[in-house]
Amino acid sequence: MRTQFLTPLLRGSIGFDHVDRLLDSLSRVDESAFTYPPYNIEKVGEDKYRITMAVAGFGQDDIEIVQQADVLVIKGKGQADAAETTFLHRGIARRAFERRFDLADTVKVVDAKLENGLLHVELVREIPEAKRPRNIPIQGAAKVVDQKIAA
Q1: pTM of the prediction?
Q2: Which structural domain, as residue segments, surrounds residue 11?
Q3: With bands split at pLDDT 50, 70 and 90, how would you rate the model's confidence at 14?
Q4: Could you write out the DSSP letters of every residue in 22-68?
Q5: Beta strands across the sheet bearing 97-102
Q6: CB-based contact 120:136 (threshold 8 Å)
Q7: Looking at CB atoms within 10 Å, which of 25, 41, 57, 146 has the fewest?
Q8: Which of 71, 44, 40 is nearest to 55 (CA)?
Q9: Is 1 domain-assigned?
């Protein structure tokens, strides 16, 4: 049924065969995986983006950022509490996490900063010359001119 639903949407698209697989994987993912840690995705320029993730309690050494092909993975190492700590209320989760972002093949990570409990990951879209729009000249019937008459 899903294929019939998507057919009108993908009729003019080429190379988007992975959409069906993406929808299948989204239907099977645990919903709590989308809530921790909270994050924003901002467009800060024509071809510039920023992911801001709330990582309170995590230090620079506790977070790993890896871009491999078209996937950005941000991992946080969970930390065990001291045995003598007794919480009356625990609102700051310091559990391990792994957040994945699918990137277009033209998007690259250029910078990452951790300040005031927020992780800022800067991204830039760089379109190679071969993928930029270009005008295609239309060829017409060639006119044959007798060079003796032209001279």
Answers
A1: 0.64
A2: 1-31
A3: very low
A4: HHHHHHHS-GGGGTSS-EEEEE-SSSEEEEEEE-TT--GGGEEEEEE
A5: 63-68, 71-76, 97-102
A6: no
A7: 146
A8: 40
A9: yes
